[in-house]
Design a protein that fits this description.
By secondary structure, the chain is an alpha/beta fold. 44% of the residues lie in helices and 15% in strands. Strand 11, helix 8 and strand 12 form a beta-alpha-beta unit.
Length: 945
């Protein structure tokens, strides 16, 4: 049974060794064997398998010169290591390299040979046979190129923990170590590439783009990450399409139609060269040349796309290329390739035939040509000069992927060197043991690679991170058209440093960028080339903001002018910024300027006019007081109670002066004194008028002027009443200032203006202040109205009544005016009210007396005063007598029933001789004349005066 098992395994192993893996390969034996997977062809010929016969292996088509150069980089690195005396001395590295044809099926077919050999070695068949001549196990694999291919290969190699180091697979999914246990790479992950592409779009202020991705494990995750980056930057993707090199022609045309009809001018492509080529070809056929392409590293420098026939479409492409490296002596190695010498590399023959467009002798492709191929190629000797032909193979100016291959091989060699030089007790394995270089297994190499940390011969530090990725940066390239032969020139225009802080990673020199359709002469002109426009809507100019359009993406908007008080000072503002409280937006809403501060100023015309009126009132009142002081002993001044008149005039001066506190920039102290000053001044004024008017009225209305009247209405009592009335107002002001004192504040909610005014603190307190003043004025009006028929030389009762009427009219009008105005006009309204009422009292009470004193001195005599007083007394007596006689006649008539004539009811008062010798006025009643005499003691007159 054991023998049977052995035979089966042996047969299987021999079959595996002889048949597994594609027939075409590059192979060299060695002590340690490295595997390699490279896309020597761009794809496979599409062929339907009807299964009528045994299925045949699909044929690879379209030779990839760059892929062949990558393969040569691996061979070159292994040759250098084998010839090195310091790295792996006495150990020879061999290799087995297969063509993946850029497809998963071919890659898996090659990978099975690596896995099968490792599986045979793990069976330990030495006890059954001498197997020393069998091919050694593949301890590591370099490749593959495409992320989709590497994903499939990694799943298989990971089962046996065979380390795989990819040089060009950047899919971020491959960083998942739980799924891809043995995968490593020397290229940055797409996690950074998608961010770099988004930063480029944001850098040029585009917000309306098309996204195209390969329908595989490279394109889908890359574009998914790109979409997230776009969302974070508020950039919209108009179209999001998948593409493959195996799409039908109708699918490619439909995709080209959608791109052609799109308003987006920037196309972001996350795809390999073979996948994007059909679309580029269709775009070139349609001559669609107004698009800007953003290329991922998979095709940023692809020779499949960078052809002169496609340049009208792809010129100006911005690509993310890997950082280039330098490989010494690699140029000479590439030039030494020759089919007659490189027998270990079976791909050289096809490379030679494709380079010189010929067939070598005994070439299987020659037989295919003779059997019906329409193309014709001549025979070639294999001795042609490779340097005489320009191919991507010899493009060694910017070694990117080739350098990654070089680093991958050296990383494996360095890991083997660490195993070779390991000392027991310092190893990475159980009990700090070391692996045996002669019996090591693939998983031990994988362990060593994960802890790799060395400096290359070029001085570059090589270390894989936790995700087994090698940190690297990107170079930003721009596709130019060569002025010499019209070929593509990859111009470096910037770089992307993934180790920098966010916002400083991307550096681009805009002066070096040449956009599609622009001539190279622009690069040397004074003005920068204009960046193409790729936005859903036109830019919103400063002073406007972006407004949302219903059912449209956020990148599509309409420009709405900022509201008053708001501004935007840059293009495409999402919102308008509100101006500070002390500022306002200009007419274009592009900036804010400081508001003009306004208050009732001394210097403005209105303030000047009010000030002049107030000063004029003070001057006029002072003049009246001066006249009264000068003529203080005249009957007119005496009759008006000169002491109260002085206080009244002083209070009017205070009234006029208080109006000045409402003019000028309000401060807290000014706001606190102006209302109390106005209120107390007016109450003092009205109190004087009230006391004086009421005193005279009581004296003249009294039947007999007794000593009691003289006692109660002496000068002291008059001042006491004035003090009491004023004290009430003072207490109102004290309570007001204590509980809610006024203060200055700014009114900021008015366009373009800041009003500085006073907040009264308590509107109720102000109402009490004005209300109490009006109450006193009403009482004063009442007494003045009652005393309107008294001798006018004493009280000017009619004029006091007019003054109170003016006062009421002014202050009743003030209330609605005060609450309907704002800003400085509030103060102006109150000043006008103060001045109007003050001038009214001054004019009505004193101007008539000043007129008599200055211009009618004849009326300012003692006789005139006596005559006026006597006339008033006789009028009162006559009215009383007439009233008495009328009552008597009515009574007599009712008793006697007589209907005779009665005395005339007319009464004539003759005062023509008032001031004569007798000084006795006569009063006539009907037919008779009655002479009445009235005498006053000097003391009584003095008391009245």
């Amino acid at each position: 049974m054991q023998l049977a098992t052995f035979l089966l395994l042996l047969l299987a192993s021999s079959a595996v060794i002889s048949t597994y893996g594609p027939n075409q390969r590059a192979q060299m034996t060695g002590d340690i064997l490295l595997g390699g997977l490279f896309p020597i062809h761009f794809g496979v010929a599409s062929k339907d398998q009807d299964l009528a016969a045994r299925p045949e292996s699909t044929q690879c088509v379209r030779f990839n010169f760059r892929g062949f150069r990558w393969l040569q980089a691996m061979i070159f690195a292994i040759d250098e290591i084998n010839n090195s005396s310091s790295l792996l001395p006495n150990i020879t590295l061999g290799y087995r390299i297969f063509d993946t044809c850029n497809t998963v099926s071919k890659a898996l077919e090659a990978t099975l040979s690596f896995v099968a050999q490792n599986k045979i070695d793990s069976l330990n068949l030495d006890e059954f046979c001498n197997c020393t001549d069998h091919i050694p196990s593949t301890i590591a694999v370099v490749g593959a190129a495409g992320s989709a291919v590497s994903t499939a290969v990694a799943n298989l190699l990971g089962l046996f923990y065979i380390p795989q180091i990819s040089y060009a697979s950047s899919s971020r999914l491959l960083s998942n170590k739980n799924q891809y246990k043995s995968f490593m790479r020397t290229i940055p992950t797409d996690e950074h590439q998608a961010t770099a592409m988004a930063d480029i779009i944001e850098h040029f202020q585009w917000n309306w783009v098309i996204a195209v991705a390969s329908d595989d494990d490279y394109g889908r995750p890359g574009i998914e990450k790109f979409e997230k980056e776009m969302e974070e930057r508020d950039i919209c993707i108009h179209l999001n399409e998948l593409i493959s090199q195996y799409f039908e022609e109708q699918e490619i045309q439909a995709l080209a139609d959608r791109i052609e009809n799109s308003t987006a001018k920037v196309i972001v492509v996350f795809a390999s060269g073979p996948d994007i080529e059909p679309l580029i070809k269709e775009m070139a056929r349609r001559n669609i040349t107004d698009r800007i392409w953003i290329a991922s590293e998979a095709w940023a420098s692809s020779s499949l796309i960078a052809k002169p026939e496609y340049l009208d479409v792809v010129a100006g492409t911005i690509g993310l290329a890997l950082k280039s490296g330098h490989i010494p002596a690699f140029k000479e190695f590439l030039q030494q390739v020759q089919p007659n010498k490189d027998s270990h590399n079976e791909f050289v023959r096809e490379f030679w035939e494709e380079t010189f467009n010929c067939y070598l002798k005994d070439s299987p492709r020659l037989q295919e040509n003779e059997n019906g191929s329409t193309s014709f190629r001549p025979l070639c000797s294999g001795e042609e000069d490779i340097t005489s032909v320009e191919t991507p193979y010899l493009d060694y100016t910017h070694l990117r992927i080739s350098y990654n291959v070089y680093v991958a091989v050296y990383s494996i060699a360095q890991a083997l060197q660490d195993i070779l030089t390991c000392t027991p007790g310092n190893g990475l394995f159980a009990n700090n043991s070391c692996a045996d270089i002669k019996k090591m297994e693939a998983w031990q190499v994988l362990k060593q690679l994960r802890h790799l940390n060395y400096t290359s011969s070029m001085g570059e530090k090589i270390r894989f991170d936790e995700s087994a990725d090698l940190a690297a940066n990107y170079t930003i390239i721009n596709w130019h058209r060569s002025t010499e032969d019209g070929s593509v020139v990859f111009e470096e225009v910037g770089y992307y440093n993934i180790h920098s802080k966010r916002g400083t990673m991307l550096v681009i020199d805009k002066t070096k960028i040449l956009w599609n359709g622009q001539h190279s002469e622009l690069t040397f002109s004074c003005s920068l080339p204009q960046v193409p426009f790729s936005n859903c809507s036109e830019d919103c100019e400063p002073g406007t903001r972006k407004g949302i359009i219903d059912s449209m993406p956020t990148c599509c908007f309409e420009c709405t002018e900022c509201s008053d008080g708001e501004y935007s000072n840059h293009k495409d503002a999402s919102v308008c910024t509100k101006c500070p409280n002390n500022s306002w937006s200009n007419g274009n809403h592009t900036f804010c300027f400081l508001k003009e501060i306004e208050f009732l100023s001394w210097t403005e015309p209105f303030g000047i006019a009010l000030t002049i009126c107030a000063v004029l009132g003070v001057v006029m009142t002072s003049f009246v007081m001066g006249v009264f002081v000068k003529f203080r002993n005249t009957p007119i001044v005496k009759a008006t109670n000169r002491e109260l008149s002085y206080v009244l005039l002083f209070s009017l001066i205070c009234c006029f002066s208080s109006s000045l506190t409402f003019i000028g920039e309000p401060h807290d102290w000014m706001c606190r004194i102006r209302q109390p000053a106005f209120g107390i001044s007016f109450v003092l004024c009205i109190s004087c008028i009230l006391v004086k008017t009421n005193r005279v009225l009581l004296v003249f209305e009294a039947k007999i002027p007794t000593s009691l009247h003289r006692k109660w209405w002496g000068l002291n009592l008059q001042f006491l009443l004035v003090f009491l009335f004023t004290f009430v107002q003072v207490m109102i002001c004290v309570v007001w200032l204590y509980n809610a004192p006024p203060f200055s504040y700014m009114i900021l909610d008015i366009d373009e203006i800041i009003f500085i005014t006073c907040n009264e603190g308590s509107e109720m307190a102000l109402a009490f202040l004005i209300g109490y003043t009006c109450l006193l004025a009403a009482v004063c009006f009442f007494f003045a109205f009652k005393s309107r028929k008294l001798p006018e030389n004493f009280t000017e009762a009619k004029f006091i009544t007019f003054s109170m009427l003016i006062f009421f009219i002014v202050w009743i009008s003030f209330i609605p005016a005060y609450f309907s105005t704002y800003g400085k006009f509030v103060s102006a309204v109150e000043v006008i009210a103060i001045l109007a009422s003050s001038f009214g009292m001054l004019a009505c009470i004193f101007f008539n007396k000043i007129y008599i004193i200055l211009f009618k001195p004849s009326r300012n005599t003692t006789e005139e005063v006596r005559c006026s007083t006597a006339a008033h007394a006789f009028k009162v007596a006559a009215k009383a007598t007439l009233k008495h006689n009328s009552a008597s006649r009515k009574k007599s008539s009712s008793i006697g029933g007589s209907s005779g004539s009665s005395p005339s009811s007319s009464i004539s008062l003759k005062t023509s001789d008032c001031g004569g010798s007798s000084g006795r006025p006569r009063v006539s009643f009907g037919s008779g004349t009655v002479t009445l005499s009235l005498s006053f003691e000097e003391s009584r007159r003095s008391s009245l005066m």
